[in-house]
Amino acid sequence: MVVGVIINSTAKVLNKVFDYFVPEKLEKLIKIGDRIKIPFGKGEALKEGFVFEIKEESKFANKYVYSIEKDGLSEERMILAKLMARMYFCNIFDCIKLMLPPGTTTNIIENRVKDKVGNFVYLNKDVEDIEEDIENGTIKSPKQIRVLEFLKENDGVFISDLEIIADVSRAIIKTLEKNNYVYLAEESIERNPFALKEVPRDSKLELTYEQQIAFNEVNKKIENSKFDEFLLYGVTGSGKTEVYLQLIESALKKEKTAIMLVPEISLTPQMVNRFLARFGNCISVLHSKLSIGERYDAFQKIKKGESKIIIGARSAIFAPTENVGILIIDEEHDMSYKSDMTPKYNAKDIARYICKKNNAPLLLGSATPDVNTFHNTETGKIKLLKLTKRANNSNLPSVEIVDLREELAKGNKSMISERLKNYIEENIKNKRQTILFLNRRGFSTFVMCRDCGFTAKCKNCNITLTYHKNRNKLKCHYCGFETNNITTCPVCKSKNIKYFGAGTQKLEEEIKKIFPEVTTIRMDVDTVTKKNSHEQILEKFKNENIDILIGTQMVVKGHHFPNVTLVGVIAADSSLNIEDYRAGERTFQILTQVAGRAGRENLPGKVVVQTYNKDNYSIEYAKKQNYDLFYRSEIIMRKTLNYPPFCDIIQFSINAKTEIEVIKVSKYIYAELKKEFKSIKNNVIIYEPVPAPIDRIKNKYRWRILLKCRFNNNIINMINNIIEEYYKKNYKNVRLIVDVNPNNMM
Ligand code: ADP
Ligand code: ZN
Ligand code: ZN
Q1: Would the CB of 240 count as within 6 Å of ligand 1?
Q2: Which of 366, 601, 649, 681 would suit a FRET pair with 593, their CA atoms being 20 to 30 Å apart?
Q3: d(CA 497, CA 499)
């Protein structure tokens, strides 16, 4: 008997199947998916791998499997890993890794952390750079490599845990620190915010007519064990969660399990408590805040079948659940369901696969559905279920638009319009709270010379540097490069330097100037740290009744704030100006969600949206809070310009250390694409290679080739052929990344 084995490594050269004989004593035990040890390479050191296939014989096998270890995969998961590697153009091991319990290379943390404060180890360099240093031999020590490999998956690990897991001494970690690969940060060990606790139990509510219809449709599939896909489309507060709860209950009654994905940022204790109140402790919450030990425990609990309900962010889709009765993806439009890291998977694809395998329904929920999803309800691929009213009969807030061009004409150059100012004043007087929302993307402060137009850019990234007032520094948000602020133009020596754009800091200052007495709290990338989580900032805002919360998109989701009656959007345009065909969709989604923060209970809410483009359809329809009208306009635009859902966009990114290399490889890939796709050229548009919108990051040159076509089996095969040939060429210092319908096209 022979097994084909995938080696436990992300190196491209090891992305193939190696054959091994199975010793007689293991023949009856070994299964596909098993984690095994095998002698490998020079010196035949034992390496870990996974059984990929089982066969009678092989002429390549010449060594024997050494042992079978615990914590392997199921056969079904192994098949999924194989499928994913093909669809997302990555190594099979990259996919296996997503499905493994964390920290499992045989050493499980037995001695759980007891100290309250300790050193946590974080990576101090980019994963890409570290991989390069390992590949080209800058880092040789296997112990150091083990530490880095582990941190790549689990950044921020308690130092004594890391010693045990990677099986290294503290000296090894200190060496890595000295060489700037990692840094240590003293932190108190956070209590698991989702530690299961006793919550007073509640019982199910009587469903409204609309909820009942939605429930019945999906429940039929649970009862009959049939796959189907549904979109539950309903405004915030329309009672979607109550429908989820009752469907999960129905699946549990049939002795099945349930998975619910939510965006990481919506995964709040409040939300989890609703599930605890209904179901008690048969829940596992998978969250990035869990310690490795806690995550390992959760995995084991799920595997043993003790957890019936899994709630988690994107990666929870890979929890080792069996016998799934329903899978729910809440806020299905959220970008975070598509991974930006290898493997660049979309959790919705994986969810569909799991539901089909388990004969279970897939339920997507949103107040502002993804345009692609809604289109699928029109073509009949997905069944549409609607909740049109708020369940507790609170009204949707009124939304007013303020035209900033008029404001400017009136001579008001401040970030706050006259109308918004008046409303804030009134709100403070009435002891109500206000949220001010500033979309940071493409909207931070930068410095420019008024005389010659010089702007300060990062020397590594060709990106405009952001001004940080509290430290008087200019900083690159891509690579962290930092330099002193300039007062004299380096080009023309003019002293006429101006600050453009406005960040949350500046907004807070303006507010303090206008309303010296008010209390404010700010939430953005600068104030949210590991210690000061967005959760804590929001709790503080709520509990201490702070007058004004100022924040970026982070404020959009999660909490209910009963006392918030006013939401101000400082500049709705900032998300319109990003170079992306989804700019309109993003703007509509953000504005609708921000609006949803106002007046959620019995107090009426008001939303003020300031904009320079008041006639833009996504702003106009966000004002009306009318998704249907927005969708009608958006879908016509998509069709006219041939964008998804009418095609898929496949992005080939080529990154290299020198411009010559990046151009050479881009041209090579382009020529190969032309050749490979010749037979189907009518259905594919291949754009010529061009520099990416951000053409240099961290001293790497970045080029792009875009393909528009229908992503199908045929295309997948062709692209895999090209990639295979590409790796044979063995280009040094060049990276090729293929991403289908990428989130980020910069
Ligand atoms: P969504 O998930 O769509 O935002 P929720 O399920 O959170 O909506 O419901 C909003 C509020 O309405 C919650 O306070 C919830 O308890 C309440 N609610 C939901 N369904 C009902 C119902 N059938 N009867 C009474 N109250 C309900
Ligand atoms: Zn100048
Ligand atoms: Zn930079």
Answers
A1: yes
A2: 649
A3: 7
> Same domain for 180 and 235?
no
Name the closest-CA residue to atom 9, ligand 1: 239
CB-based contact 726:673 (threshold 8 Å): no
Reference 364, options 262, 278, 267; nearest CA is: 262
Distance 603 CA to ligand 3 centre (A): 46
By most ligand atoms within 8 Å of CB, the mutation choice from 231, 266, 392, 559 for ligand 1 is 392
Amino acid at 620: E
Q: Could you give the C-alpha distances from 208 to 236, 252, 378, 509, in angstroms and in order?
A: 15, 22, 25, 46
Which is more confident, 629 or 292? 629
Q: What are 401-428's pLDDT values in tens digits?
A: 998 888 878 888 788 999 999 999 999 9
Domain that holds residue 284: 209-383
Q: CA neighbours within 13 Å on the CB side: how many for 177?
A: 13
Mean pLDDT of 59-63: 90
Residue nearest to atom 23 of ligand 1 (CA): 207
343 preceded by a cis bond (ω within 30 of 0): yes
In a 13 Å sphere around the CA of 700, the CA atoms on its Cβ side amount to: 19
Boundary (domain end) residue, out of 638, 659, 679:
638
Task: Give the angle subtended at the CA of 377 by the CAs of 375 and 378, to the nearest 5°.
Answer: 65
Residue type, 456: A
β-strand partners of 499: 447
Cβ of 236 below 6 Å from ligand 1: yes
| Nearest ligand for residue 492 CA | 2
Where is mean pLDDT largest: 112-116, 236-240, 396-400, 447-451?
236-240
CA–centroid distance for 92 within its chain = 21
Q: Are strands 2-7 and 564-569 parallel, antiparallel or unpaired?
A: unpaired
Distances (CA, A) of 44 to 40, 41, 136: 5, 5, 22
* Residue 48, phi then psi, degrees to nearest 5: -90, 150
User: What is this structure's pTM?
Assistant: 0.84
Q: What residue has token string 């449709």?
A: 217
> Which residue among 57, 73, 99 closes a domain?
99
Choice from 206, 241, 592 to test ligand 1 binding pocket (greatest atom count within 8 A of CB):
241
pLDDT at 554 over 90: no
Question: In sequence order, what DSSP letters do the residues of 501-515 get, joined into one string?
Answer: S--HHHHHHHHHHH-
Instruction: Please state whether the peptide bond connecting residue 645 to the residue before it is cis, i.e. omega within 30 degrees of 0.
Output: yes
CATH label of the domain that carries residue 526? 3.40.50.300
What are the CB-based long-range contacts (under 8 Å, 24+) for 53-59?
53/3, 53/4, 53/17, 54/1, 54/2, 54/3, 54/4, 54/30, 55/1, 55/2, 55/3, 55/4, 55/19, 56/1, 56/2, 57/2, 58/2, 58/4, 58/19
CATH value at residue 32: 3.40.1440.60
Helix (H, G, I), strand (E, B) or coil at 201: coil
Ligand 1, atom 5: closest residue by C-alpha: 239
Q: What is the DSSP letter of 189?
A: P
560 Cα: distance to centroid of ligand 1 (angstroms): 12
